[in-house]
Amino acid sequence: xxxxxxxxxxxxxxYEQELEKLQVELCHLQxxxxxxxLKVIVIFEGRDAAGKGGTIKALTEKVSPRVFRVxxxxxxxxxxxxxxxxxxxxxxxxxxxxxxxxxxxxYNRAGVEYVMGFxxxxxxxxxxxxxxxxxxxxxxxxxxxxxxxxxxxxxEQQLRFQARIEDPLRQWKLSPMDTESFGRWYDYSRARDMxxxxxxxxxxxxxxxxxxxxxxxxxxxxxxxxxxxxxxxIARAKVRLPKRSHKGRYNDQASLRRMKFVEQxx
Length: 266
Prior knowledge:
P-loop_NTPase; transferase; 5 strands; 10 helices; Rossmann fold; 5-stranded parallel β-sheet; kinase; 12% strand
C-alpha cells in the first residue's frame, strides 16, 4: 500500500487568516482567566529547532504579558545549583489570573542535562520518579497543566539548522549546545521516550504536535490550548473616549523646538 503523501505546507495567507481568529479567542480566554483567577502552566518542549519560539510568539503577541507570562530561565547560578532541582521553577508558578508559559522547563533534566552528561544517571532517575508527584501536587492545588512536545523530523531539523547558519538574522539562535545536539539525534530520541514513559500521566498528560510545518503546528497548539481551558466570553462595556479639556490650553509643540529629536532618516 502506498504511503500517504505529507500535507502541503500551509500558505501564509491561509495561516494569517486562521491565526487572527484564534488570537481573538485568546483575548477572550485572557479575560476569563483574569476574571476567574485561573492558574495555568503551559510547557513547551521539543528538539532544538522544533519551532517552540515561533509558536510561543504567535501565542502571546496579541495578549497582555501580565497575563501570559513567558518564562525562559537561563542556566542556574551557583546558588541555584545547591537548591532543590525544581525550586527555581516552582518560584515561577502562576498566581490567580496568570498563564505561565515555560519555554523549556524542568524537563531539561530529562533531555539536555541527561544526554549531555550535566546530571548523573542517579539524578536523572530520581527526577523521573519525583516529577509526576510534583505535577500531581500542582494539579491538585488547582493549576491547569498543559504539556506540549513539538516533534520535528530529522530532515526538517537539518534544513532549519542550515538556515540559521546562513542567515545573519538567525545565527544568534544557534548555540554550541545546539550543534552538539544535532549529532545526537538518537540519544535525544531515547531520552524523550524514557521521559514520556515516566511522566505521561493521567493528571498531567503529554500532547505531541508534528512541527515540520511551522504554521500548522502553531495553529494546532493554540487551538489545543483554547480547547483545554474551558472559558466563556465576558461582555465588556463599550469604551468611550472623554472630551479633552481645553483648560490651560497652550502651544505644547512650540516648547519642544529647543529639544533634540532623532534624525529622520526614513
